[in-house]
Hints:
alpha+beta; five-stranded antiparallel beta sheet
Amino acid sequence: MLKDFQSHILDNFPELTKNKFLLACSGGLDSVLLSYLCKESEMDFILAHCNFRLRGAASNGDEKFVKELGNRLGRPVLVTHFDTMGYVHSHRVSVQMAARELRYQWFKGLMEEPGIDYLVTAHHADDNLETFLINLSRGTGIDGLTGIPEATGQIRRPLLKYTRDTILAYAKERGLQWREDESNADTKYLRNKIRLEIVPKLKELHPAFMENFERTLGFLKETQEISENELERVRERLFQRENQYLKISVSELKKLRPLKGYLFGLFKEFGFTEWQNIVELLDAMSGKSVYSAEYVLLKNRDHLILAKKTAQEKEVFEIEEGDFRIDYPIGLEGKEVSEKKDTTARIIYLDKNTLKYPLTVRKWEKGDYFYPLGMKGKKKLSKYFKDEKLDLFSKQEQWLLCSGDAIVWVIGRRVDDRFKVTETTKEILSIALL
């Protein structure tokens, strides 16, 4: 197995031969074997062990074992301790989920330190099968049926091609010692139930069951790749970038078949999971929206608009008298000039003596009004936005330049008539949107 492992590393994980990495070691069979394989392959690694304090003396025994393993291999060992049950109660998650979240938070922190480039874990082929069955039992798309990836970000899983039987046989052949976690025999946990009761029966169905399963995973991954290529083609055609948002034609979405399948694929990366809500959004009135954790999808006339959720800015930013340049919250440059040129959406000319300092920059609020240049009388911003056919997101991102309580400029759109340059103007201030 050692020669096969070394060949596998050179072919698929050459970065592990050139960089230092963390090796997550529980003290169990899989991670102990992986530690020996990496040592004998002359890789540079640090053992990382988590004591979750769930099994009393047994947990402490695991920690002691891993420290001794590090001494035998001549590799450094990092250890941390967690109040796992405290995390369970405070975050209302299962013990297994708490342990997962805690250890990966720790690993992430360690990898932010200079000199540690990857995390290597001992997931193997049977873990892949168990994950497949768990996802299948819960209901999943094709993503949940393609197994555990060999590489994700900084994480590498070089044992995924090997079965538990292969790992156990080689460990016994080498006379290795490891720790047994009694909780792995507790079938109240779904993964353990699948491992101990379902997987053995599946393996009885065919002598080459695991090989056939790995082949099926390969087919599913290729199908997934074809699917992603098609979805990317559709995204490039339908998702139009406008400023900070994506604009998508409702009529073009409706032509896709199967509709729910396409909607799932197109919007899953943005965290949307309530697909019926998105289907209904296609025929909803303008202004209707659905939300994911980080994004909002808005029906705006004949389009859906997809944008990242942002907190409404409430700050007011001041600009003192004189020439100025600001870059935040929006880029503006003001300077006194000798003559007025044509006012545009990006540069305006004002009668400096009509302004009250400091000028302020803020987001628009309900009830705001101004006197649009060239028009008689005032107009509410909400009505102006409606006439300009601004969508919800454009309204939320709109900044105003104000003098006292008066709006001077709906920045990038319209200047207020009260501050325009006239024949009696003595000092002219130009303000440009950068």
